[in-house]
Amino acid sequence: MEFPKKRMRRLRISDGMRRLVRQTKLSADDFVYPLFVKDGSGLKEPISSMDDCFYFSPDTAASEAMEVASLGVPAVLVFGQPVKKDSTGSQAWAENGVVQQAVEQIKRAVPELVVITDVCLCAYTESGHCGVVKDGKIDNDSTCELLAKVALSHAQAGADIIAPSDMMDGRVYYIREALEKNGFHETAIMAYSAKYASSFYGPFRDIADSAPSFGDRKSYQMDPANADEAMAEIALDIEEGADIVMVKPALAFLDVIRRAKERFDYPLAAYNVSGEYMMLNAAAKADVLDKDAAMMEVLYAIKRAGADIIITYFAKQAAKLLK
Ligand code: PBG
Known about the structure:
CATH class: Alpha Beta
CATH superfamily: Aldolase class I
Strand order of the largest sheet: 1-4-5-8-9-10-11-12
Bound molecules: ligand PBG
Number of domains: 1
Order of helices and strands: HEEEHEHEEEHEHEHHEHEHHEH
Number of helices: 11
Largest sheet: 8 strands, parallel, barrel
Shape: globular
Low-confidence stretches: none
CATH architecture: Alpha-Beta Barrel
Radius of gyration: 20 Å
Mean pLDDT: 97
Strand content: 15-25%
C-alpha cells in the first residue's frame, strides 16, 4: 500500500492510539532487583560507585525487600560481601554467612517474594577470581564442588532460585546434583549461561570488592566477539538442568538475546549490568539526557530483543513509573 492510502503517522497521532498498537509491554513483573548485603545490623550504606544503591545488613535487606515487593517487583537477587576472604572463599558456604542470614530474614518478612542468590566465589576469595586458583590457574572441577556447597547452603537458608555466575564448565550439573541429593527438588537454577568478559562490570567490582588480583576473567567468561559460543553455553546449561538461562550484559548483546530467544523455547533472563546503569546515570547527571525516558527505552529494548526477565538496578524506579 502506498501514500496517501498508507500514512504511518495515523497510528501515532495520540497517546491512546500509541498505547493501542504498542507491541512490547513492560510491567513490574518483568524485573528482578539486585540487593547487596554485608554483615551488621541497621545498615543502609550508600555505594559510591553506584548511584541510589546501598549495602544492607540482613535486617535492613528484609525491609528493603518489603518495599520492592510493594512496588510489584516479584524477585530480588542477593549478593554478599563477606567479613573475611580466604583462598577457597569459605565464607560463601558458611551457615551463618551474610547471604544465608539475609535470605532467611527476607523470606520471613516477605514469603511471597522470590529470592534468588548469586553463587560465585569472586567476592569471597583473596584472589578475587570466580574459582579456586591452583598453580596460577583457575581450577574448574574443584571450583564446581565448592559452588555446589554454596548453592546448597543458600537452598537451606530458603532461596527459591540459585544463580551461578562463575562460568565454570559443568557447574549447573554439580549444583543440580547437590540440590536433588539433599531433597531440594523445587529449588530452581537460573544460570548465567552466556556471561561475557565485559568492561561493563566495572562499578559492580567496586561494590563487591571482587576485581581479580592478577590476570583477568577471560579464561572463563566469554569473548564479546562470539555469538555461536553463547548458543552452545545455553544449550549445555539447559541439558545440565538450568530452569532459566541468562545473557549478560544486556545492551551490547541484544543480538545474542534475540538469537537465544529464537533458538530455545526457554525462560530467558538478561542482566542490565552496573556499567550500563551508571552510563545512563552519568549522562543524566551531565544533563545530556532524560534519565526516566532513557531508562524506559533501554528496558523496552531488552524486552523487545526477547528477554522474559530483566535483572536491573532500575527495577524500583521503573516499577514506580509503570504504576
Ligand atoms: C560475580 C558477578 C559479577 C556480576 C554479577 N555477578 C561480576 C563479575 O563477573 O566480574 C556483575 C554485575 C554487574 O556488573 O551489575 N561473578
